[in-house]
Amino acid sequence: MRSLWLLLIVPLLSGCWDRVEMNDVSFFMASALDMTDKGEMKVSIQVPIPVGAGSGEGGKASAGGSLGKTYFVVTSTGINIHDAERKIQNKMSRQFFKGHRRVVFVGEKFARRGIKDVLDYYSRDPGSRLRTYIVVAKGGEASKLLLNDHPIERIPAEDVRELETSGTGTSVTFRDFLMTQANEGIVPVMGAVELFSPTVDSGNEEHFRLNSLSSTAVFKNYRLVGYLNDIETRSMNWIKNKLDQTIVAEKLLRAGGNVGAVLNSTSSRIVTTFNGDKVLIHIVLNGTGVLNEANVDMDMSNPKNISDIERELGEAIAGQALRTVKKAQTEWKADVFGIGLQLHRFQPNAWKKVRGNWDETFAGAEVSVKANIKLHRAGIITDSLTNERTEAK
Amino acid sequence: MLRKLFGKIKPMNMYVETPKQIPVEEDKPTTSLDEMTAKLKEIFNGCSDVVFRSFSISGVVDGLLVYIEGLVDEKQLEETILKPLMTSDYYISSKLIKEEFITFLEKRLIAIGQMKRSSSLYQIEQEILKGSVILCVEGQSESIVASVPGGNVRSVEQPSTENTVRGPRDSFTELLNTNTSLIRRKIRSSRLKIDTITVGDITRTSIAIAYIHGIANESALREIKARIQSMHTEELLESGNIEQFIEEKPFSPFPQFLATERPDYVVSALLQGQVAILTDGSPFVISAPMTFWGFLQAGEDYYERVVYANLIRMIRFLFSMIALLLPSLYVALTTFHQQMIPTNLLLSIAAAREGVPFPALVEALIMEITFEGLREAGVRLPKQVGQAVSIVGGLVVGQAAVQAGIVSAPMVIVVSLTGIASFTIPRYNFSLAFRILRFPLILLAGIFGLYGISVGLLAILVHLSELKSFGVPYLFPMAPVNLKGLKDALFRAPVWTLYLRPQAVGHRSKRNGKD
């Protein structure tokens, strides 16, 4: 009985004193960071508009307030993020809640100036989550992305988060970025988002546009130095062994047509050797999957034809990967693939010799790529429909 | 501090007045029938339901039948006592009358199974009140007490509060004999002992203590008997009264007795070493010592096949937790820990809560109290209006309150789910504990968040671990841990592996084979 009384006193000693009703909270769904012409920081916040019972909606938890929108965006400028957020809080009737922020967009201009201060804030503030995705707004202001209505998602930021989790592009959270930044022998990257028209004809004026997470932004010393396009992004993720599944579609000259395949499992292996001062990097890419489109004049029931396609597809993929590495070597001298990190982990003695000048060493390294592609199945038909023998039968 | 307080309160509940006895000198046997009649008439002065029937045995000796109307089967009385006595062809000599007339009557004339003799006026009074027929004969100091039970009683019906899909369908009634016979029908062993005690200075209620010799927990049995004998009360209307008198922790929210109207549950309890107490006039039989897990088990746990039984038991445990915790978790998560709710769910809840004028804590309390009120009303309502009220209650509390923006829809879901969950607890008296504890937990959640809930749960756990039911730890076999006992606590092992009786309660002996 006495222990019971003691326990009843315990709550008074400590506790979660930060009680706040949900009606008094505004949830940050996404933030956008930009740099104004004056060099001030511009912070934009995307906040959902909850509308529910009492507004004559019949108790349905529907969205769409007096603005007819499901969200709104608040913007303010300041010397740093806190200054801007303080000004935003002054404009808002409700308290901030950052725990559910999905994405932080960084404007291109701001990213090129350096994001070091931002990283400090997001890793220091306990209210922010390190698992928030960080994304560069390619070629424009980040706040524009917040204002883009999405036809499907209630909250536009949700769309970018879904793209990030789908695993097609480069998905990087604050945590990933900081960990990469802290490592030697690898240069951090993050996803880059662009707005595109949903249809191919750009002349056809659409009233909405879609986000596309197709490219990768490369950061050196916290500064944005350049982008990798979608194919280069895939090559990079493949070399980093971060690719789960991918669709490859290539023109094959020897086979006389083009093919498309879904590779369900991919992997990579990097072998670094030294020839005097020269560093030789050999990258092996493996991929197995299913041939799903074969616009070639071949009998797919013949294993030899399949292996021909495998070989030529492998060559094409190896070529893409080699071009990507070359781009990183020549344009930025930036090891986005983590080859140095690999060296550090598996050949620590060799790494000691090159760590002081890895960027230059990487840039001067001789790179070779080989891709082994295995196609287990060729779909549910054997012959190509364009094959004349099929028509003859 | 509380112990002192409780110590003071408890004796005050007891009625301390010795029962009124007839003085010994007046209790002396009398041979004169007129005197006897006068005495009995004096005792039953104003009791119009007591019947005095004078007659003559074979026209030779005067006799008197005394009984209470409605407690006696009058048709049988006529057939087996009145008719043989009045129309007997035996020659009754004066010698016979003087010497062994009562024995003669017993042996030759009265065709009744259960009868005895009594010469104590007090005993005769008690027997009349119990429903026996008293036959007084002129010139005899002893009277015959015959049992001709009858009158209107409820027959054995289906249990109304504890339903099972599979299992026996009989339930106890208000009559003690019927109830003991229902148990005896299931345990045909002379080791099943049934002791009868009378309790209550005015109500003189018969209670029966049933146990299986050699299985029952001896110390618990002694303790229960001793406590019942030390009870002092005027009235005993329901087995719940006994429970309150003899339980160890009267202020604990958790019951320490099983209360059931199903004979198979009582039999199962007896076979596990518990002691059952049957009360005349109540269809609810109580038994002890009980453990926490015993309250969460239903008959189907044993009647159904092991896989299904375990699945159902898991569901029951899960819903017991929901019944205890869901409203407080909802309050804590929505007012303190918004980051723990998935974003999309959070937005839906936020949208639903928009425009609700109350804080979540107040909202939860309003809804829970309303639900408890509806439930209480539902129990008291006459059957004819019950449906109407449940429709109005459901509509008003559910739909209309949400539409009017007074409460949010998620809260209605939470409260109704909690309400349904509390009905999955098989023992009604145990679900009451969860209903009570829900409210302090909601308050703790509203003031301290998840921290408060943890502290509240810890307090409940501390209380449960110090609670004992007649010497058996309430949380046995979890605390103290007993590996063999764990076979039938959270999970139920297949029946053929349960060859040991629960150690905590009764003797640790093999179920199959000789002890």
Keywords, separated by commas or semicolons:
A: 393 residues; alpha/beta; GMP Synthetase, Chain A, domain 3; 2 domains; four-stranded mixed β-sheet; 13 helices; 14 strands; 30% strand; B: 515 residues; alpha+beta; 3 domains; five-stranded antiparallel β-sheet; 12 strands
Give your account of this protein's structure.
The complex is a heterodimer of chains A (393) and B (515). Chain A has 13 helices and 14 strands. With 393 residues, chain A is α/β, with parallel strands linked by helices. In chain A, the strands form 3 sheets. Chain A has an 8-stranded mixed beta sheet, with helices on both faces. In chain A, helix 8 packs across helix 9 (303-332) and helix 10 packs across helix 11 (348-354). Chain B has 515 residues and is of the alpha+beta class. Chain B has 19 helices and 12 strands. Chain B has helices at residues 2-13, 33-43, 74-86, 94-98, 101-109, 121-130, 176-186, 218-229, 239-246, 263-271, 292-295, 300-303, 306-335, 343-353, 360-380, 383-403, 409-422, 428-448, 450-466, and strands spanning 50-57, 61-68, 115-118, 132-137, 143-147, 192-199, 205-212, 258-260, 275-279, 285-288, 468-469, 472-473. In chain B, the strands form 3 sheets. A 5-stranded antiparallel beta sheet of chain B has the order 1-2-4-5-3, with helices on both faces. A 5-stranded antiparallel beta sheet of chain B has the order 6-7-9-10-8, sandwiched between helices. In chain B, strands 11-12 form a two-stranded antiparallel ribbon. In chain B, strand 6 (192-199) and strand 7 form a beta hairpin. Chain A binds chain B through residues 1, 3-4, 7-8, 10-11, 14-16, 18-23, 25, 27, 29, 48, 50-55, 58-59, 61-63, 97, 99-100, 102, 129, 154-155, 158, and chain B through 2-3, 334-339, 343, 346-356, 359-360, 399, 402-405, 408-409, 444, 446-452, 455, 458-459, 462-463, 466.
